[in-house]
Amino acid sequence: MSIYAAGEIDLDWERETRFLNKQYPIVVFSKTYCPYSKRAKELLAAYNIQPTPKIVEVDMRDDNNVIKLLLSRLTHHSTFPNILIQGKSIGGSDDLIALHNDRTLAKMLERAGVTIQSDLEF
Description:
Glutaredoxin, Glutaredoxin_subgr, 4-stranded mixed sheet, 43% helix, alpha+beta, two-stranded antiparallel ribbon, glutathione disulfide oxidoreductase activity, Thioredoxin-like_sf
């Protein structure tokens, strides 16, 4: 992982990973114009989870091509959205919806340390 540390030789990846997973247990790499990204963000919003998912709008960043390459390499998922729970990619919008339909998404989210505040039944 040191290749991704941008020159920080002393970066403690274990500590950094624990910190990021606690602060941002759910991360969505999205594109603003993508209908699949929109659908995934809407489903997650319906769960009204705390802390709220960290949304990274890749197409709004200058380094979007680098992020896409890194995500593809690290998660083996090259399309958007790319949804990470506790740093592990669960795939994209169709995968998220399948987990929701199987009634396993809520359990996954809770195991990741988020609180579901929606009154909807999941």
